[in-house]
């Protein structure tokens, strides 16, 4: 069932006074994202069936120290401060940090609930560890901890440097394993001036506009690299963001550093033309 756009806008909190803005949104193509989201409120569409079973992916040998190659998550965390040296800005709010200490004043951050966790930087999985492992046998037998100790491919994916970004700890915790979404054109901030928001009821996280392209390319890379399932709705949104927000200099610099440490970067950053194939 196709949901009328006026009902979608109403569901998303837009009033009759927003119709002029809505027309502009429609012209920009963002209305398709809102439509997909609006339909999710009323039930899953038939064309959003799960993707086919993931292809078989082999784990690579893991390295440690200063060697070049894939790492597990503990080893990756030891490298990440060096990878982001001189680029110490958190992903979701744009806060500057030093060591693990977040500078709230640099981004107008205000804690929502936990000042302790909001004060520190944590390493966020853009594609959550839950998404990497919950369909694997190891997860059924003992969750993330069991996967990290017994499953070589999960360990490789959990420590993939392409998927790890610095984030304010409180926001990292609130995001949890929620998928990305888009439901607020003008976000009502919940972390002071931070423009990323979370809807705990819908279990969706809307990243600030400045990083949506990067978040989409990381998400698409991880699903391609590790043969992960993705709903049609989520893939449509990630492809839309990847097209709308092209690769920028921050992504290029980050990708070069990932390649220096891991030997494998994000092909959607180094080869933007590959997006057409991934999103065909």
List keywords for this structure.
disordered N terminus; 3-stranded mixed β-sheet; mainly alpha; two-stranded antiparallel sheet; 280 residues; single chain; 14 helices
In brief:
The chain is mainly α and 280 residues long. The chain has two domains: 1-49, no CATH class; 50-278, no CATH class. It has helices at residues 5-11, 19-28, 30-42, 73-83, 115-118, 129-133, 137-150, 152-158, 169-175, 212-225, 232-244, 249-262, 267-270, 275-278; strands spanning 96-98, 101-103, 121-125, 164-168, 179-180, 197-199, 204-206.
Biggest beta sheet summary = 3 strands, mixed
**Terminus-to-terminus distance:** 24 Å
- Strand-residue fraction? 5-15%
Label the structural class.
mainly alpha
Number of domains: 2
Helix share of residues? Answer: 40-55%
Secondary-structure element string: HHHHEEHEHHHEHEEEHHHHH
Radius of gyration: 19 Å
Explain this structure.
The protein is mainly alpha-helical. It folds into 2 domains: 1-49, no CATH class; 50-278, no CATH class. It has helices at 5-11, 19-28, 30-42, 73-83, 115-118, 129-133, 137-150, 152-158, 169-175, 212-225, 232-244, 249-262, 267-270, 275-278, and strands at residues 96-98, 101-103, 121-125, 164-168, 179-180, 197-199, 204-206. Strands 5-7-6 form a 3-stranded mixed β-sheet, with no helix packed on it. A two-stranded antiparallel ribbon has the order 1-2. Strands 3-4 form a two-stranded antiparallel ribbon. Strand 1 and strand 2 (101-103) form a beta hairpin. Helix 3 packs antiparallel against helix 11, helix 7 packs across helix 8 and helix 10 (212-225) crosses helix 11 (232-244).
């Amino acid at each position: 069932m196709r949901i009328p756009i006026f009902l979608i806008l109403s569901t998303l909190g837009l009033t009759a006074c927003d119709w002029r803005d809505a027309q502009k949104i429609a012209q920009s193509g963002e209305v398709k994202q809102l439509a997909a989201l609006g339909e999710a409120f009323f039930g899953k569409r038939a064309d959003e069936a799960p993707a086919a079973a993931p292809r078989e992916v082999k784990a690579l040998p893991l390295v440690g120290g200063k060697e070049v190659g894939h790492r597990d998550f503990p080893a990756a965390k030891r490298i990440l401060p060096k990878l982001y040296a001189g680029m110490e800005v958190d992903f979701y709010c744009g806060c500057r940090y030093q060591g693990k200490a977040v500078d709230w004043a640099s981004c107008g951050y205000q804690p929502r609930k936990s000042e302790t966790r909001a004060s520190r930087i944590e390493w966020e999985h853009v594609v959550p560890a839950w998404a990497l492992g919950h369909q694997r046998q190891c997860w059924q037998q003992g969750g993330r901890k069991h996967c990290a100790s017994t499953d070589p491919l999960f360990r490789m994916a959990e420590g993939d440097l392409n998927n790890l970004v610095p984030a304010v700890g409180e926001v990292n915790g609130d995001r949890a394993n929620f998928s990305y979404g888009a439901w607020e054109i003008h976000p009502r901030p919940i972390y002071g001036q931070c423009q990323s928001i979370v809807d705990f009821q819908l279990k969706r996280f809307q990243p600030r506009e400045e990083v949506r392209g990067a978040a989409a390319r990381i998400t698409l890379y991880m699903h391609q690299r590790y043969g992960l399932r993705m709903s049609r709705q989520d893939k449509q949104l990630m492809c839309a963001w990847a097209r709308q927000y092209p690769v920028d200099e921050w992504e290029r610099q980050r990708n070069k550093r990932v390649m220096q440490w891991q030997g494998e970067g994000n092909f959607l950053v180094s080869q933007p033309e590959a997006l057409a194939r991934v999103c065909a």
